[in-house]
Amino acid sequence: MDYRQSCALSLIYHTTRGEVAMSQTQAKSNRKLIMMLIAGAIGMFGFGFALVPLYDVLCEQLGINGKTQSTAAQYTPIAVDESRTITVEFMAQIQSDLPWEFTPEVRRMKVHPGELVRTHYTAQNMSNASIVGQAIPSVSPGQGAAYFNKTECFCFNQQALAGKQDAALPLIFYVDPDLPESITTLTLSYTLYNITDKGYVARVEQGAEQ
Amino acid sequence: MSTITQDAPAAHDDHHDDHHHGAPKGLMRWVLTTNHKDIGTLYLWFSFIMFLTGGAMAMVIRAELFQPGLQLVDPNFFNQMTTVHGLIMVFGAVMPAFTGLANWLIPMMIGAPDMALPRMNNWSFWILPFAFAILLSSLFMEGGGPNFGWTFYAPLSTTYSPDSTALFVFSVHIMGISSIMGAINVVVTIVNMRAPGMTWMKLPLFVWTWLITAFLLIAVMPVLAGTVTMVLTDKYFGTSFFDAAGGGDPVMFQHIFWFFGHPEVYIMILPSFGIISAIVPAFSRKPLFGYSSMVYATASIAILSFLVWAHHMFTTGMPVFAELFFMYCTMLIAVPTGVKVFNWVATMWRGSLTFETPMLFAVAFIILFTIGGFSGLMLAITPVDFQYHDTYFVVAHFHYVLVTGAIFSIMAAAYYWLPKWTGNMYDEKLGKIHFWCSTISVNVLFFPMHFLGLAGMPRRIPDYAIQFADVNQIVSIGGFAFGLSQLIFLAVVIKCIRGGEKAAAKPWDGAEGLEWTIASPAPYHSFTTPPEVK
To answer: CA–CA separation, B139 vs B348, rounded Å?
Structure first.
């Protein structure tokens, strides 16, 4: 079986048993093309993963996903635009396996763009076990997300509640006066997830420190 | 298109130092084979077995849906059936069938002695049975097999999936590696092994469409591999690509999946276009109308396929701008596809038509695939898609393009080239019976699904509201009939292999191409000296 000693790419080529007698030049140009195609396939595998940060960047830049910044905004006192009134609605949702109660202080409030507003959500752990929760915010309409600035938000941190414990979760925000005229209502929705047994600790805390 | 100056290329040449021989005997012939014809045969039989396996699962689905309420299987098993039916038909039946046809036909069509990478060819086939053994074995595990739909949307495939999900992931990895190796082989063969004079614009369209398909495969199968890898690490290793709680996004799953998924649907139809473009001229006894426009249309479809993925996810809450962009891009695909359909019709126009079984399947393909194309256009319209989304209208649409599209073209190809493969003519009468049984039953099966969908029946649910009962019964009867009809096909193929009227080298009057210049059955080694194409 002479093919055992044949070329380095013996997995791919074979010259035995009479099927293909390949010329040297042919083998060379085959080899070059194969390498290019394999490189293309590996590149596309990498591209699949590159889509992950690309997706986040695009959503953030275009403000199309309702995602708000995961870090605190700096509030520099700016002129409050008294002529406009924006309705801000607050929603609270809980992932089904989280035995907590979670409600906003108010369901709806009217604010002027530029005005710094303080409110809070309340959460109570209804079970006896201590549980770690993580709130994920989302703003609708999505185009408004970039103009909804939070200087303080419980969503920047994880919330650990012992059994039966309750807590007021602060939220301080202002609406950027550059908010497009077409938007008169912003709906802020928090979904609370149970991350007690998940390994997300490092990642979320890191986000909060930035 | 091309004239051929050599008519008995199978002649043994003395100046070759290799020893010509027939096929080796026994089981090891098939395990060790590097012969493109053997591997093509393996692929085709494998895909037929998978077609029957996936078909049996469809029968379970239709039996359960024969009546409202839950009678035969529990919902979790029903979900496994819809999931594995989809996976098997896409990755086990349609794609390997096309790879099998590519293996058999591309070397003979371009005047090459074999595929460029015969040993890799052996590998790309032989890892497939293992992939599907892994996938099917997961059905028997505790907690069951994959039950999240063939699209395996997160979080169904991560947070809520059965313990066997790792097996699903690994089997998809293996299928992907197999497809990529097959695609690399096809590209290298076509680029480097064409016979002298076989210039690009003389290539048969089946070769052209497969070349473009191969590039699509190399571009998107790795993305699928990446997606399943992310599912794997999300489920088992604590990453959060698709979990909002950890900073990920489940909607991103759909973007990445459909970035693979939409080119994938063209992977499953472009080779069909090549097959139909070979068969229609042969039975019209006229050259193909608009050869070069066919090539350009195929390439345009392939490029556009990368720009339309989000039409699968109009209801996820995209900005209006994006919805319009994807709507118009999707509709744009109708232009090159329309070019193809009109070219086939123009080829038949004033042709000297006969309707042997391959032609019957080809004509049925043109009509029924176009129906599937039209319902695709309807689905592309963003506002109406909000109504059609996730209903049986979608099921009707993609079964028209995949069953009466891809599968019918594969049937047509099998009938058209069986004489070349076996050396015998198939039983024309049985073939016609198979055609008419299939065509009537497939329409009874899928056409009423349009109405079910418009009336609001959701996909992938084992039960339905009482008002859908009558139509579902008709659909199920069509389904059983279509399933049974495929046993006729099996009988035709077996009968053809075992004997029958001897086939001439060129059994069809109007057939064109190098494969008809070699004897029937095609000798084990063909074109060991390249033919001269003028």
So the answer is: 47
CA distance B525 to chain A (A): 7
Q: How many CB atoms lie within 10 A of CB B21?
A: 10
Q: Which two tokens stand for residue A38?
A: 């394999």
- Among left, alpha and beta (phi > 0; psi -120 to 50; other), residue B143 is left
**Helical H segments across B151-201, by residue range:** 165-192
A-chain residues near B123 (CB < 8 A): 11
Per-residue pLDDT of B407-448, as tens digits, reads 999 999 999 999 999 999 999 999 999 999 999 999 999 999
Contacts of B17 in chain A (CB under 8 A): 21
Shared-domain flag, residues A55 and A99 = no
How far is A37 from chain B, CA to nearest CA, in Å?
Answer: 6
> Could you say which of 2.40.440.10, 3.30.565.10, 1.20.210.10, 1.10.599.10 is the CATH number of the domain covering B38-249?
1.20.210.10
Residues 6+ apart with CB under 8 A from A24: none
Higher pLDDT, B477 or A170: B477
> Which of B183, B192, B245 lies nearest to residue A195, judging by beta carbons?
B245
Count interface pairs A-B at CB distance under 8 A. Answer: 141
The pTM score is: 0.89
Q: Locate the chain B residue with the closest alpha carbon to A58.
A: B252
B36/B96 Cα distance (integer angstroms): 14
Cite the active site residues of B: 85, 114, 150, 178-179, 262, 264, 266, 277, 311-312, 337, 340, 459
